[in-house]
Amino acid sequence: MNTQFENKKILILGGNPETGDLVKTANQLGITTLVVDPNPDSPAKKFAHKSYDVDGMDIDGIVKIANIEQVDGVLVGVADILVPSYAEVCQILNFPCYASKATIEAFSSKDRFISICREHDIKTPKNFNIKDVKKNSSEFPLIVKPVDNGGGVGMIICHDYPSLLNGIEYSLSHSNSKNYIIEKYLECNDLQVYYTIINGEIFLSATNDRILTKSTGKVPVCLGSEYPSSFTKIFLKKENEKFKKLFQKIPIINGIISIQLLFDGIDFYAYDPGFRLQGEGQHIHLNAIQKYDHRKMLIQFALTGCMFEGDFSKINDPFFSGKHSLTLWILLNSGKISRVDGLQEIRSNPNVFDIMLRFQVGDLVTQEMVGTERQVFARIYVVGDSRLEIKKVSKFIHEHLEIYDQHGDSMIVDRFYPE
């Protein structure tokens, strides 16, 4: 047990499987964990010492729980939509909070993010007002997104005017604020950059190339991510300082932030921010290779107001000290999971350092989940000394892993092999 946190209690907002990993980390530090989520069967609740079936948007209810339980800190899990609640609860209770009104305005709404990027000379995909889109526009395909949702939820690619009108209705049905944006759909390289910010000092900590599949329906979904991105050097040269100035202007004092970008070989286009731990799990790669853990850093900040002590630059390297790593996303078609083969063999592979399971045998993957990140069965984390090594491990994983539905048919959608 870490005596620094002995007898401490932390309240965590959100109950998805990715947040469960954060709960487990807090448990390992000897902290008493409480999880708030409206779903009684939320995966993260299985690991918490205590949980409440309360909506993460219910500020009064969360504050009441925090006071009754006499918690020492509050932290948001892997859920963009709960970052505003996290900030408001912390303000009421006078707890440390890495989010502020300014950061929420900048990163919790896609339309505001577009505006702030353009203020700092950062390109974003061209966006449109529905009134400006002609029925026979050459601008198609377009993508419609709710301004306040992520993970592919409520997003749809439209190839003509009638599908655009339907797409707007679809996006609005997945937006709490009932707002959407229309963007030019760009088919090019997709990558993610991931920053650590400590006491106002900004570090690029990880970069990854995202490989997507279009086999699942409405929008492409990630099949895998390779670290570091093959575009890291050019990003550092062309864009890094722009983002640092953006973060300084807001300002961001502490926290971690992911930015997803498109790269057409000439220009980068920013399109999606995330001011919290990511479902992709960059923190898992950083812990395995760089030996620092963002989960522990954020927990420490929630309880003490201090994220890191020492010289962070000595342990931070976006090039991963010459190593390569990979996240394999295992996507499933709809159906009931009846059998999973190969997990034991995969876990025994020395290059596989973590597996984050989102489903179990007996769980149902609904048709509504398909085409979003909710269809992810697992993310498998691989590290190696070269791209060739992680490529071999990827092949090993796919040779052993099989998932069957109630009819005995394979449920796996595509399989990513690094090339």
Q: For the CA atoms, what is the radius of gyration?
A: 21 Å
Spatially, the strands of the biggest sheet line up as 13-12-9-10-11-14-19-17
* Mass-distribution shape: globular
Number of strands: 20
User: Segments where pLDDT lies below 50 for 5+ residues?
Assistant: none
Mind telling me the CATH class of the largest domain?
Answer: Alpha Beta
**How many distinct helices?**
12
Strand content: 25-35%
**Helix/strand-derived class?**
alpha+beta
CATH 4th-level superfamily of the largest domain: ATP-grasp fold, B domain
CATH architecture of the largest domain: 2-Layer Sandwich
| Mean of all residue-level pLDDT scores | 94
Please give the domain count.
4
Q: Report the span from N to C terminus.
A: 43 Å
Structure report:
There is one protein chain. With 419 residues, this protein is α+β, with helices and mostly antiparallel strands. It has 4 domains: 3-97, Rossmann fold; 126-184, Dna Ligase, domain 1; 187-322, D-amino Acid Aminotransferase, Chain A, domain 1 (2-Layer Sandwich); 324-419, Glycinamide Ribonucleotide Synthetase, Chain A, domain 4 (Alpha-Beta Complex). Helices cover 28% and strands 26% of the residues. The protein has 12 helices and 20 strands. An 8-stranded antiparallel β-sheet has the order 13-12-9-10-11-14-19-17, sandwiched between helices. A 4-stranded parallel β-sheet has the order 3-2-1-4, sandwiched between helices. Helix 1 links the parallel strand 1 and strand 2 (32-36). Helix 2 packs across helix 3. The protein starts with 8 loop residues before the first strand and ends in a 15-residue tail after the last strand.
